[in-house]
Specification:
Elements (H helix, E strand, L loop, with lengths): L20 H26 L7 H11 L14 H13 L4 H26 L4 H13 L1 H7 L5 H21 L2 H17 L7 H14 L9 H5 L1 H9 L1 H14 L2 H9 L4 H4 L6 H14 L8 H10 L3 H19 L11 H20 L3 H16 L1 H15 L3 H4 L7 H6 L8 H12 L5 E4 L6 H8 L8 E4 L7 H12 L4 E4 L12 E6 L2 E6 L1 H5 L1
Parallel strand pairs: 1-2, 1-3
Antiparallel strand pairs: 3-5, 4-5
Helix pairs in contact: 1-4, 2-3, 2-24, 3-4, 3-8, 4-5, 4-6, 4-7, 4-18, 5-18, 5-19, 7-8, 8-11, 8-12, 12-13, 16-18, 18-19
């Protein structure tokens, strides 16, 4: 590997010359803060400020009830996100759902600011870095993760922080920087297993740095210091390690504990090795939907520019990580596979920023301004693309099966519009349930993932906590559920069914359904009873 400390020279245009020394640090911090604040304000305004649906709702109810366990395994506990969510809930005087979602807002804003800084550190001008970072800010899936309760924004914040630490190590060659890098990656892995994919690249960097003397350590043996790096990683990994030790103590099976922490109940999806043409086309379509602007054609230009970049250590690591993450997410066979593509969009935006800078350097000053303005305008218009797509597809009924027909939920806006503001279907369902249900009533859910909004209403005191919530699925009712329905109705209480499809509720033998909005009241079938 070539000398990793060789840095790219400043652009020839004197107006673009970068400040040096302490001034450079102050300038970098100032622009980082500006990028952070812009992203934080946009995401705060557009965030979902109440109860949420599906996994986001599950995160909220687990955090609010202080239930860190997850039925699908340790891999789904996300302890860093969990405890930071508890902290947000404790210190922010906001609606509980909004307070927890603010963690995603802040983490995503950190990732945007980190990306902007890294692009400039790799030699690009600030306008190019700003446009590329804004492109990531508006990218559909990243935007969605930033404005809902999810652990993914933290993944982006940690990964981009690791990149900045790697760039700092290349410049200053301090082993202490590597120790901080290992610590941050340890925390990142404790937050989400996606972060483990980057860990081997840092281990290789550390090994090469120690072996080939890429450091300025004069007072201590670099090899001895290298032994501390795994310790730094384990210190960061403590939140998940603690849960693993508890799990092992409870079941006595270390192999089962490691499997639970590594893949949970999704081993088949994680270990899937197939890559189909349909899957690749699906991935390509989502990538295009996240960057429906003039940045996307600059991706290959940016890849070429990055490969020639003189910051060889950082760039080579980025290319390897890009390949590893792309291989993982494109063959990760789960229903919401698209949600994992966000990590690729971090790389996309980085390379697009370098590609935009390379393009601008080839143009005259007047053409440079025109090109930058056109590309920036195309990026700013990205939300209009999402709005138009949702409306056109809804009018044509396209993807109706994919977006579903859930109660009070417009599947097209839920799926194709990334921001959280305006998505009040969980609150609307709660209002409908509150209007019907009282103490000791029974609520039946056809599917698991829609129940969390109603549980949120119970945790906030808006729905009586004595109301029983039960998931019945689509199979025949078990004896316990049938007894619960009969006892509740005999006592003059209400039984409510929340269907998977608002227009096609499942049948309940011996009972009839009375529609109320998008949900159903369960009543005795008097005809059957008389028969």
């Amino acid at each position: 590997m070539a000398n990793p400390t060789h840095q790219q020279t400043a652009p020839p245009d004197a107006s673009d010359a970068q400040p040096q020394g302490a001034n450079a640090l102050r300038c970098a911090v100032k622009h980082w803060l500006i990028a952070f604040l812009v992203a934080a304000v946009i995401y705060t305004i557009t965030a979902d400020k109440g109860p949420q649906w599906q996994d986001s709702g599950w995160h909220q109810t687990r955090i609010m009830s202080f239930d860190i366990d997850h039925p699908f395994g340790l891999a789904l506990t996300h302890p860093v996100h969990f405890y930071l969510g508890r902290l947000s809930l404790a210190v922010l005087p906001l609606e509980p759902g909004f307070a927890i979602t603010m963690l995603s807002v802040v983490a995503a804003a950190v990732a945007i600011a980190n990306l902007f800084t890294l692009i400039t550190l790799l030699g690009a001008r600030r306008p190019a870095a700003a446009v590329a970072s804004f492109g990531l800010l508006l990218a559909h899936t990243f935007f969605e993760h930033a404005t809902h309760t999810e652990s993914y924004a933290l993944v982006a914040a940690f990964l981009t922080t690791e990149w900045l630490l790697l760039a700092r190590f290349q410049k200053h060659r301090r082993l202490s920087t590597l120790a901080v890098l290992f610590f941050v990656n340890g925390i990142a892995v404790a937050n989400h297993n996606l972060a483990i994919i980057a860990a081997p690249t840092y281990a290789v960097v550390a090994a090469l740095a120690i072996r080939h003397g890429w450091t300025r350590s004069q007072k201590r043996s670099t090899a001895r210091f290298g032994a501390y790096l795994p310790i730094a990683w384990l210190v960061g990994f403590q939140p998940l390690l603690f849960l693993m030790l508890k799990h092992w103590q409870a079941n006595g099976d270390i192999v089962a504990t490691i499997r639970s922490a590594a893949v949970g109940d999704f081993a088949d999806a994680v270990m899937n090795t197939g890559l189909s043409a349909k899957g690749l086309a699906f991935a390509a379509g989502f990538c295009a939907y996240n960057f429906p602007n003039l940045l996307l054609p600059l991706l290959p230009v940016g890849l070429a520019a990055a490969w020639r970049n003189s910051n060889r250590l950082v760039v080579r690591v980025l290319f390897i990580q890009f390949a590893l993450y792309a291989l993982f997410v494109t063959r990760y066979a789960i229903v919401d596979q698209y949600s994992y593509f966000f990590v690729l969009y971090l790389f996309f935006a980085l390379f697009m920023g370098l590609g935009l800078d390379a393009l601008l350097k080839r143009l005259t000053q007047s053409r440079r301004r025109i090109a930058l303005a056109l590309i920036a305008l195309s990026v700013a218009a990205t939300p209009l693309t999402y709005i138009a797509t949702a409306r056109v597809l809804e009018d044509r009924g396209a993807f109706a099966g994919m977006v579903g027909n859930k109660p009070y939920r417009n599947g097209f806006t839920a799926f194709f519009l990334p921001w959280g503001i305006g998505k009040q279907y969980a609150e609307q369902l709660n209002d409908a349930v509150v209007a019907i249900c009282g103490p000791d009533d029974l609520i039946l859910f056809e599917e698991t993932m829609s129940r969390f909004g109603v549980q949120y209403a119970q945790l906030t005191g808006r729905l009586n906590p004595s109301i029983e919530i039960r998931v019945i699925g689509t199979e025949a009712l078990d004896e316990t559920t049938r007894d619960m329905i009969a006892i509740t109705l005999d006592a003059g209480r209400n039984v409510v069914l929340i269907p998977r499809d608002r227009d096609k509720p499942r049948e309940l033998e011996g009972y009839r359904l009375e529609r109320v909005g998008d949900i159903y009241r369960v009543l005795p079938d008097r005809v059957s009873a008389s028969d």
